[in-house]
């Protein structure tokens, strides 16, 4: 009886530690990507962005998403892909005003998306 309680508590503690670790990892990945988007947004505002800037942010996202597929549904990742590709295309065509709108959407997504997978009471129930 005592062994089963100890095993159960050990498994519970390990699960909670895993969930906290995943939460921290996802948050860190999105914080880094969000800061890259902020930099790109400022460059676009100043009309100083070029296609390499957009491609470097997209390259950064491609590296991150290959690891995030384990934790986040593919639909959410493809949603970010869609907006980022649209923004890169607009930067390439030097349509900076339209690109700002796309980057603004991406900034909001990267700010709010990790919270949907955080270890919070509202996400559990």
What brief labels describe this structure?
125 residues, mainly alpha, elongated, 82% helix
What's the total number of strands? 0
Q: How big a fraction of the residues is strand?
A: under 5%
Largest sheet: none
Molecular shape: elongated
Give me the secondary-structure category.
Answer: mainly alpha
Low-confidence stretches: none
Tally of DSSP helical segments: 5
The helical percent reads over 70%
Task: Provide a descriptive summary of the structure in words.
- The chain is mainly alpha-helical and 125 residues long.
- Helix content is 82%, strand content 0%.
- It has helices at residues 2-45, 51-68, 74-92, 96-112, 121-124.
- Helix 1 runs antiparallel to helix 4 (96-112), helix 2 packs antiparallel against helix 3 and helix 3 runs antiparallel to helix 4 (96-112).
- The protein is elongated.
- The two termini are 30 Å apart.
- 19% of the residues are buried.
- The mean pLDDT is 91.
Write the layout of secondary structure elements.
Elements: H1 2-45, H2 51-68, H3 74-92, H4 96-112, H5 121-124
Provide a quick synopsis of the model:
This protein is mainly alpha-helical and 125 residues long.
């Amino acid at each position: 009886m005592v062994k089963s309680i100890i095993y159960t508590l050990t498994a519970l503690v390990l699960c909670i530690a895993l969930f906290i670790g995943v939460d921290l990892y996802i948050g860190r990945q999105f914080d880094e990507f969000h800061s890259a988007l902020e930099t790109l947004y400022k460059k676009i505002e100043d009309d100083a962005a070029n296609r390499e800037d957009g491609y470097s942010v997209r390259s950064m996202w491609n590296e991150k998403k290959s690891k995030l597929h384990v934790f986040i549904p593919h639909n959410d990742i493809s949603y970010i892909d869609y907006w980022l590709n649209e923004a890169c295309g607009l930067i390439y065509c030097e349509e900076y005003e339209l690109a700002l709108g796309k980057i603004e959407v991406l900034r909001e997504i990267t700010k709010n998306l990790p919270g949907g997978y955080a270890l919070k009471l509202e996400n559990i129930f």
